[in-house]
Design goal:
By secondary structure, the chain is an all-alpha fold. It has a domain of 111 residues. 70% of the residues lie in helices and 0% in strands. The protein contains six helices and no strands. It is elongated and about 105 Å long. The termini are far apart.
Length: 161
C-alpha cells in the first residue's frame, strides 16, 4: 500500500468546545434543580403549636362527625329494611375499622380480632367486635340487633384516642 508510514496524533478539540460542553452540563443541572424545587409539595407553616393543635382538633372532630353520620345511615337503612341484621352489623364493623385506620393509622380493616387484642387497642373496639359484630357475622343463627351494634360503634368513634 502506498503512503507514508508516519503516525499522526489524534485531533485535539479546541477550548471553545470544552467550555460549551461544561456550559451545557451546568445548564442541565440547573434545569433539573428547578424542576425538583418547583414540583415538590409545599409545606404549610402555622404560627404556633397552638394553631397546629387547633387545626388537628378540627380535623379529628370532622372525622368523628363523618363516621357518626355513616353509622346513623347504616342504622337508618336497617330500620327501613334495606339491610338485613347481618349485613348491617357487617357494615358497622367495616365503618368502625375504617375509622380506626383513618384516625390512628392502625390497619384495623385487615386485622382479625385476635390481632387487635394482641396489639392492645382501645377496649371499646374489642368490646364492639367481640359482642356485636363477630357473633352476628360469623355465627350460625339469627344476628344480634344492629341497634346495639350501632351504639357500640358510636362509643368507639367518640372514645377512640
Amino acid at each position: 500500500m502506498p503512503g507514508s508510514d508516519e503516525l499522526y496524533p489524534p485531533a485535539q478539540y479546541g477550548w471553545g468546545w470544552i467550555l460549551l460542553a461544561i456550559g451545557i452540563l451546568i445548564l442541565l443541572i440547573v434545569a433539573a434543580w428547578a424542576v425538583v424545587m418547583l414540583t415538590r409539595p409545599r409545606r404549610l407553616t402555622l404560627g404556633s403549636d397552638e394553631a397546629r393543635t387547633l387545626q388537628t382538633a378540627d380535623v379529628l372532630s370532622q372525622l368523628r362527625a363523618e363516621y357518626l353520620e355513616r353509622i346513623q345511615l347504616i342504622e337508618d337503612d336497617y330500620r327501613a329494611r334495606r339491610l338485613t341484621a347481618r349485613n348491617a352489623n357487617f357494615e358497622l364493623s367495616r365503618v368502625v375499622r375504617t375509622f380506626v385506620n383513618e384516625y390512628s393509622g392502625l390497619e384495623a380493616p385487615v386485622l382479625a380480632l385476635e390481632d387487635l387484642v394482641a396489639r392492645g387497642v382501645h377496649p371499646a373496639l374489642i368490646d364492639a367486635m367481640s359482642r356485636h359484630y363477630y357473633p352476628s357475622i360469623f355465627r350460625q343463627g339469627p344476628a344480634i340487633d344492629p341497634a346495639a351494634g350501632a351504639e357500640a360503634a358510636r362509643t368507639v368513634v367518640r372514645t377512640w384516642h
